[in-house]
Amino acid sequence: MHHYTLVSHHLCPYVQRAAIVLAEKGVPFERRHVDLAAKPDWFRAISPLGKTPVLLVQDEPLFESAVICEYLDETLAPRLHPQGALERARERGWMEFGSAILNTIAAFYNAPDAPALQARREELGAKFMQVEQALHAGGPWFAGARFGLVDAVFGPVFRYFDVFESLGEAGLFGETPRVHAWRQALAARPSVNQAVSAEYPRLLHDFLIARSSELSRRIQVSGSSASVK
Ligand SMILES: N[C@@H](CCC(=O)N[C@@H](CS)C(=O)NCC(=O)O)C(=O)O
User: Fold this and answer.
1) Which of 17, 35, 74, 196 has its CA 20 to 30 A from that of 23?
2) What value, to the nearest 5°, has the Cα angle with vertex 217 and ends 173 and 128?
């Protein structure tokens, strides 16, 4: 078997996708953390876009999380993607949708004022309503009984809301019962749990405070740091 090194950042949701897929395959891997605020030369040399994750397969660097996940799925059992090309294409579309939600989450925690924060909150609610329609009715996973790559994409998405809610943000999933149940199933999945360190809530809290955004101010005013520190 190859030696795998996942070049990581502690908070990066795209890194978590690859860590979840590696765990689902039962494959041991090494992690190498990088400071994205001061990218070292060795990292620039292997990451053409200067982003995490990079997966080193022996010495060969692979970049872009979807590419990494697909490569791992093609080369290691058990297969997470469905057999049929049409189903596979559909799931790839929803993986991309997961990335669009991550962009809205970033816009949410960077929102400069209360109206912008509310607009992003509503945008997130609308996106999760679309996910509600796409989810398999019986669960527990996106497409039913098989844990797939879409599940690996959304585990890190929901993790943000665990921290947002612990900091006083109202829940977003009251009107999306399938999404709510999916979120709970993902939170209990060992591969999803183990994709981040125990430090994650504290590190995300500190990252959010440092945004100087509306959300940062609300966290500071409510003093809810105690709940995550
Ligand atoms: N499309 C990329 C996105 C990866 C990404 O945005 N990584 C962020 C950290 S979560 C990053 O490395 N940002 C550093 C930068 O853009 O300078 C993927 O799916 O791998």
Assistant:
1) 35
2) 20
Q: Is 107 in the pocket of ligand 1 (CB under 6 A)?
A: no
Ligand 1: centre distance to CA 4 (Å): 19
Q: What stretches in the chain show pLDDT beneath 70?
A: 224-229
Query: Burial letters for 102-132: b for 16+ Cβ neighbours within 10 Å, e otherwise?
Result: beebebbbbbeeeeebeebbeebeebbeebb
Which residue shows structure tokens 């607009």?
Answer: 119
Domains and CATH numbers, the chain: 4-75 (3.40.30.10), 85-228 (1.20.1050.10)
User: What would the two tokens of residue 58 be?
Assistant: 């022996």
Among 10, 49, 51, the mutation site with the greatest number of ligand 1 atoms within 8 A of its Cβ is: 51
CA–CA distance, 122 with 16 (Å, rounded to integer): 26
pLDDT tens track for 190-202 = 999 999 999 999 9
Q: Report d(CA 191, CA 27) in Å as an integer.
A: 11
Q: What is the pLDDT of residues 118-136, one digit of tens each?
A: 999 999 999 999 999 999 9
